């Protein structure tokens, strides 16, 4: 049976199919490599060119190896036989992707466009239009979205320009076929999106003219002239000027094909019901000008224009809400211009001033609207109710679009709503207006990174291309907030002597960033101040205090600690700030500030200053977090002396299980580390920060998140050393030693561990002394010094017994069993592992029992008791799964794979090894990944898949070589053997003392 044909897409997300089955192409960088090769149409790309394409001027240290890894993974997916690749082939030091014609959507797109050009030249616009439509149907959104690298950024822009050119050709064909009424709305949207593209503006003018809308065609020309003058300092080109003159004199040649000009009015939109004789007949058009450089928001524009274009049995009401400066007004005005053709009876716009001290009363707004609709001053009723009734009466039977900008709340909006179908209302507000009849809502967030970059570069111009990295930095420091990006770009444009890097450096200082984001009468801080000034005193205080911790998100318990109130009261405050547009809630029970708004909240002062209140708030949060983490520690390591004073304080949540407790720390680890870094400062308590750091260590072990904790440990160490707080210094050095051990820096790790032991002896901190001996034993395991490891474990074990720490005694007895197994003392290892399991069960320490079973399996295997060993591994795996012990589960699975392979069951061994590898990748444990890849290669070799085995060994060799460990030599020997070396001898896996 023939293999189904491959096909690829780049006109949208990069995807690949084999027949009807979509293929998994890996992460963004790997997809980027595939896209680069696809777009080069079979041409060979040298390795240097590929590295430049993916990373530009800042490649990672091992860029060449990474490219080869990506290519190897792509071959697994694309090739029928990776041993003899036919598609992704090596060429010198680089690669080429050689696909038959017609398999890439971009090639099909160009072929269809070329054929359309030939049909149009042959005088067949209908055939050309059909082909152009088919070409455009191939697009599935923006090309190559979210793929990194300078090459694809450039190609993304070129592809987008090419699509626009083909779309323009299709619209020209539509006009040749007399379809002006069908395309006028599409042309209006495109002209607004590309205001400097004169050919599109010309097509829109022709379409409007042919629809009997000569005045609007002339206004479209005037808008283009204003835009070109403001943005480029030039007038429209000669073709657009000639078209303008022809429209002015009603040139007969502008008539639609096949129709005399005098019949054109028959194709104009049907007017609404004629007004009564005494009814006013004004057609207001008070929309502000659209932004010439409006950028992005494609999805939101589609939703808004779709809703506003619906024909329903009741008025359409849409609201756009979001933080100040996020671009609500710009979006609303842009969408309103896009659909204005669908509201021939007029468009009303007003700024309700809802963000200021004096919002417009509905009666005043209604008076303005009635006058705009032609009601004389003498006929405007006095009362709000009467004005609202007349307003609804005038709108009945009409199609009018009403834009209510900057609404304060629903009470301000309700009297301004029409009462019958045909009209639409678009409301913008910072707060989320509640209880608007039938309203649909868009909660507007900041721009996507690429949209923010496009906005910035559109204003700055060609300077941006020379400093791309700095552009990314600037828009990131602006938090991708449109107002901030626009101000930053405008400041740069007005200062030709500044580089973009200069601006980035000025914005990098958080204390002056808001001051930098100001030009003329535009200022980010002033925009935030408008919303802040609307808060009552208690809510304003909460707004300031909730921003004290520099954390990604807040939970209600954390907010309660910051505010010194109950959880229920804190939740009410959080929700009220969300409703007011001063806080965001990305998920249930999670709250966050926009970056710049959080900066504003930390800098704005209360009536009497907030320095002491802010210090007290952080202290409460630190103590709450420490109490919660001590509860976690008691559940995952019952009776541990590291968490004195009982399970928790009243501030801490009650966890139902150890697994739930571990999950809490894993979820909140980033916030915990941020609090530690912030508390490690002269005005705070470094001792409590050090205590929190130590209690996090078991979760760092289990999730292998060592690198995340390094900055926090360094901050505590620096501040403790500066203060001369030796107890806190010892704790920081202990955790830092564990981090360095597990990231391969053993010499530095030993220095910290030995200094921690000396400090513990000096201060009498025997609890940490026990942990520090654990740290030294881990270093000894890594250095293959079993004798030293046993000595350190025995000292830690003696201290655990002294404290009555049954769970700690269980784990350390397991460590001792492991050391015996590695030293070749299998019988002693079995005895120690059995005792470890008994102790763990007695202490109710499930994780300790899983560890004991794991060690017991290793020891039994060393005695050739393979069936018993497999049973112990199965038992350990079950506990790991129930307790969420990801790291230990991956180790158990690997030992299980080795055992099944030895027992002659390679297929089952393969399943276990692949699951082990997947977990290792998930938690980022590179040493374990190398071990799993090596074992997986042995299994594949046993299954006769020798080429696949060698691929796995080469991946393992790459990891071990990067880590600089001796196991690389073992893998090299395998690669030069027939793969029959058997299972490797025991390799060390040091574990945390708090399992």
Please, could you describe this protein's structure?
This protein is mainly alpha-helical and 995 residues long. Among the domains are: 298-443, Rossmann fold (3-Layer(aba) Sandwich), CATH 3.40.50.300; 460-522; 534-609, Winged helix-like DNA-binding domain superfamily/Winged helix DNA-binding domain (Arc Repressor Mutant, subunit A), CATH 1.10.10.10; 617-764, Serine Threonine Protein Phosphatase 5, Tetratricopeptide repeat (Alpha Horseshoe); 885-995, Serine Threonine Protein Phosphatase 5, Tetratricopeptide repeat, CATH 1.25.40.10. It has 43 helices and 14 strands. The protein has a five-stranded parallel beta sheet with strand order 7-8-9-6-10, with helices on both faces. It has a three-stranded antiparallel beta sheet with strand order 1-2-3, with no helix packed on it. The protein has a two-stranded antiparallel ribbon with strand order 4-5. Helix 6 runs parallel beside helix 8 (198-210) and helix 35 (806-822) packs antiparallel against helix 36. The longest helix is centred in the first third of the chain and has 27 residues, at 150-176. The protein is globular and about 105 Å long.
- The residue ranges in which pLDDT falls below 50 over 5 or more consecutive positions are 260-281, 646-652, 980-995
Radius of gyration: 34 Å
Helix and strand composition category: mainly alpha
Secondary structure tally: strands: 14
Helix residue percentage: 55-70%
Strand line-up across the major sheet: 7-8-9-6-10
**Which CATH architecture of the domain at 617-764 is right?**
Alpha Horseshoe
N- and C-termini, Cα separation = 53 Å
- Biggest β-sheet, characterized? 5 strands, parallel
Mean pLDDT: 85
Query: Roughly what fraction of the amino acids lie in strands?
Result: 5-15%
Q: What general outline do the C-alpha atoms trace?
A: globular
How many individual helices?
A: 43
Please report the first level of CATH classification, the CATH class of the domain at 617-764: Mainly Alpha
**What's the oligomerization state?**
single chain
Q: Which fold name fills CATH's third level, the topology of the domain at 617-764?
A: Serine Threonine Protein Phosphatase 5, Tetratricopeptide repeat
């Amino acid at each position: 049976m023939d293999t189904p044909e491959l096909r690829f897409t780049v006109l949208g997300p990069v995807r690949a199919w084999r027949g009807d089955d979509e293929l998994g192409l890996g992460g963004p960088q790997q997809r980027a490599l595939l896209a680069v090769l696809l777009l080069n149409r079979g041409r060979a790309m040298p390795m240097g060119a590929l590295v430049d394409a993916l990373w530009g001027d800042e490649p990672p240290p091992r860029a060449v190896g990474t490219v080869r890894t990506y290519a190897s993974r792509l071959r697994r997916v694309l090739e029928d036989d990776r041993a003899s690749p036919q598609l992704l082939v090596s060429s010198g030091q680089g690669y080429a992707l050689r696909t038959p014609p017609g398999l890439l959507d971009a090639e099909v797109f160009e072929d269809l466009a070329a054929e359309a050009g030939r049909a149009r030249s042959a005088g067949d616009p209908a055939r050309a239009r059909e082909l152009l439509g088919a070409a455009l149907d191939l697009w599935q959104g923006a090309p190559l979205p979210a793929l990194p690298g300078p090459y694809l950024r450039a190609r993304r822009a070129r592809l987008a320009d090419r699509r626009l050119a083909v779309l323009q050709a299709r619209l020209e064909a539509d006009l040749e076929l007399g379809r002006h009424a069908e395309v006028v709305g599409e042309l209006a949207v495109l002209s607004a999106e590309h205001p400097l593209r004169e050919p599109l503006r010309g097509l829109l003018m022709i379409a409007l003219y042919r629809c009997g809308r000569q005045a609007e065609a002339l206004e479209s020309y005037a808008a283009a002239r204003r835009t070109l003058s403001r943005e480029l300092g030039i007038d429209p080109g000669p073709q657009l000027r000639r078209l303008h003159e022809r429209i002015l004199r009603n040139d007969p040649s502008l008539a639609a094909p096949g129709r005399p000009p005098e019949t054109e009015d028959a194709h104009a939109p049907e007017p609404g019901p004629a007004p009564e004789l005494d009814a006013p007949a004004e057609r207001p058009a008070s929309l502000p000008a659209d932004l010439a450089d409006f950028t992005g928001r494609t999805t939101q524009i589609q939703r808004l224009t779709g809703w506003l274009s619906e024909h329903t049995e009741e008025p359409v009401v849409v609201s756009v809400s979001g933080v100040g400066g996020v671009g609500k007004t710009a979006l609303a005005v842009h969408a309103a211009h896009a659909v204005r053709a669908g509201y021939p009876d007029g468009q009303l716009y007003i700024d309700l001033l809802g963000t200021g001290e004096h919002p417009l009363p509905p009666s005043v707004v209604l008076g303005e609207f009635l006058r705009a609709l032609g009601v004389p001053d003498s006929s405007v009723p006095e009362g709000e109710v009467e004005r609202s009734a007349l307003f609804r009466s005038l709108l009945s039977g009409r199609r009018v679009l009403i834009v209510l900008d900057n609404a304060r709340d629903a009470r301000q909006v309700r009297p301004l709503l029409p009462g019958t179908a045909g009209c639409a209302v678009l409301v913008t507000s910072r707060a989320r207006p509640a209880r608007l009849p039938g309203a649909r809502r868009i909660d507007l967030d900041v721009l996507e990174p690429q949209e923010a970059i496009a906005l910035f570069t559109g204003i700055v111009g060609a300077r941006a291309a020379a400093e791309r990295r700095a552009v990314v930095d600037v828009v990131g420091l602006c938090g991708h907030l449109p107002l901030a990006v626009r101000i930053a770009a405008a400041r740069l444009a007005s200062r030709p002597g500044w580089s973009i890097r200069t601006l980035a450096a000025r914005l990098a200082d958080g204390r002056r960033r808001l001051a930098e984001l100001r030009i003329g009468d535009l200022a980010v801080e002033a925009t935030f101040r408008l919303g802040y000034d609307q808060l009552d005193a208690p809510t304003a205080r909460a707004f300031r205090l909730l921003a004290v911790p520099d954390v990604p998100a807040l939970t209600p318990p954390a907010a309660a600690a910051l505010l010194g109130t109950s959880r229920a009261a804190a939740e009410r405050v959080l929700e009220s700030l969300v409703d007011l547009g001063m806080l965001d809630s990305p998920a249930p029970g999670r709250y966050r500030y926009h970056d710049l708004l959080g900066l504003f909240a930390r800098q704005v002062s209360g009536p009497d200053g907030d320095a002491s209140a802010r210090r007290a708030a952080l202290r409460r949060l630190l103590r709450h977090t420490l109490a919660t983490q001590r509860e976690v520690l008691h559940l995952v390591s019952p009776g541990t002396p590291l968490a004195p004073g009982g399970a928790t304080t009243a501030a801490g949540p009650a966890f139902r299980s150890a697994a739930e407790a571990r999950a809490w720390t894993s979820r909140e680890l980033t916030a915990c580390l941020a609090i530690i870094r912030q508390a490690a400062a002269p005005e705070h308590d470094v001792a409590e920060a050090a205590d929190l750091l130590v209690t996090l260590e078991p979760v760092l072990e289990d999730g292998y998140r060592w690198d995340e904790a390094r900055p926090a440990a360094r901050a505590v160490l620096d501040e403790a050393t500066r203060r001369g707080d030796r107890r806190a210094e010892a704790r920081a050095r202990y955790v830092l030693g564990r981090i360095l051990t597990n990231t391969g820096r053993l010499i530095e790790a030993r220095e910290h561990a030995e200094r921690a032991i000396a400090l513990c002896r000096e201060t009498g901190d025997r609890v940490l002394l026990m942990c520090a001996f654990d740290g030294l034993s881990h270093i000894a395991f890594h250095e293959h010094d079993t004798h030293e490891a046993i000595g350190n474990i025995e000292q830690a074990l003696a201290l655990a017994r002294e404290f009555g720490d049954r769970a700690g005694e269980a784990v350390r007895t397991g460590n001792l069993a492991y050391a015996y197994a590695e030293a070749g003392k299998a019988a002693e290892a079995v005895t120690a592992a059995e005792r470890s399991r008994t102790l763990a069960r007695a202490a109710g320490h499930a994780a300790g029992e899983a560890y004991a079973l794991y060690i017991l399996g290793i020891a039994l295997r060393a005695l050739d008791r393979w069936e018993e060993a497999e049973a112990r591994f199965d038992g350990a795996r079950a506990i790991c799964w129930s307790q969420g012990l990801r790291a230990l589960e991956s180790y158990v699975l690997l030992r299980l794979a080795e055992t099944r392979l030895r027992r002659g069951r390679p297929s089952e061994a393969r399943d276990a090894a692949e699951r082990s590898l997947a977990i290792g990748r998930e938690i980022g444990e590179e040493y374990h990944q190398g071990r799993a890849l090596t074992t997986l290669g042995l299994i594949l070799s046993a299954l006769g898949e020798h080429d696949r085995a060698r691929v796995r060994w080469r991946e393992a060799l790459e990891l071990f070589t990067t880590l600089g460990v001796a196991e690389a030599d073992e893998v090299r020997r395998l690669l030069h053997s027939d793969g029959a070396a058997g299972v490797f001898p025991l390799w060390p896996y040091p574990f945390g003392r708090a399992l």
